[in-house]
Write the structure tokens for this entry.
Amino acid sequence: MENIKLILDKFNFKGDLISCEKFGSGHINVTYIAKYNDNGKICQYIVQKVNTNVFKNISELMDNVFAVTSFLRDKIENCGGDPDRETLNYIKTADGEKFYRCDKNECYRAYKFVDESKSYNSVDSAEIFGKSGIAFGRFQKYLSDFPATTLNETIPNFHNTIWRFENEFIPAAEKDSQGRAKDCEKEIEFVMQRKTDCSRLVDLIDNGELPIRVTHNDTKLNNVIFDEESDDAICVIDLDTVMPGLALYDFGDSIRFGANTAAEDEPDTSKVSIDLDYFKAYAKGFLSEAGDSLNQCELDNLAFSAKLMTFECGMRFLTDYLNGDTYFKTEYDNHNLVRAKSQFALVKDMEAKMADMEAIIKSLV
Ligand code: ADP
Ligand code: GN1
Ligand code: MG
């Protein structure tokens, strides 16, 4: 705890430190929960080491986060909500900075832990998943009049699938720096066969049919926190990838993670499929909040976006496997390949059920 204590001291938290432990299950940042005793009152904080390999400009990233959270605070207050629970509250360093950069060029930031809250790493019920749809739909709605173009692009081309295909996946497969391509020939072929899917949404942006909006871009179920007692979704967290983007990216990525009958990295692909009841519950929740602001082209592409975001994520895992696991945290040797296979199994199932997914969306709008 000694090293992290030196970091905690930079934030001037009040009281005596009780404990500081690693927390959460993200693939990118390192998250800690720190507990303090402030004159008998227990105060908890989230402290994160932001991944500077993935996020090249932490200053721009934190500017985004502060801009969006202060905008949300005003919105939530105006709607009669409680901004201390319904949006993240970031804490500046003792020097008044938005994050602390230490000598080793590591960057840390802190925010208040939302008390009496919980998060889900897998989906327990269609009802819970539907509630996360309400939270992400509301996030979209509240930010609909935020000037999207003022946000920095923390990771350029983040969900530009054709860019990822041409500039990341193809070079990784051609270079084959780790000699791993021979172990994933079928998966490489799977990606190659779906190249035309990769440009569909980008082309619709270029044609002016899909509007650029403020998007979260990482709408996994564990990026929403729920009230411990009522189980209502209260707050959208993990705002590092908030950027200009498409509402479809947020919808699609939620489905990828939450409507899967198995975990994102399930090795037994026979367990992987899309649960249409979960799909419907999420779509209903999301559209109940964001539906009025979406145009026809967005509505027409909701089901496709779920497939595209699943495909893109699988392609990113496969690319990282080919590159030698330099981007995502992994727990064992071929973890990224297992993740890719699992995502592609889900893509296949979505392709088989696409007509049903489209029909569900039609029934809701
Ligand atoms: P990561 O980059 O590791 O995904 P997150 O910001 O999503 O980081 O945080 C990891 C986990 O910590 C979340 O899934 C959630 O369970 C918990 N968490 C994060 N921030 C808060 C908060 N302000 N209040 C309560 N729990 C939180
Ligand atoms: C990463 O940080 P985390 O685990 O919430 C990744 C997402 C992927 C996700 C797959 C910045 O999210 O894009 O969809 O893993 N975040 C970044 O689980 O690349
Ligand atoms: Mg997270």
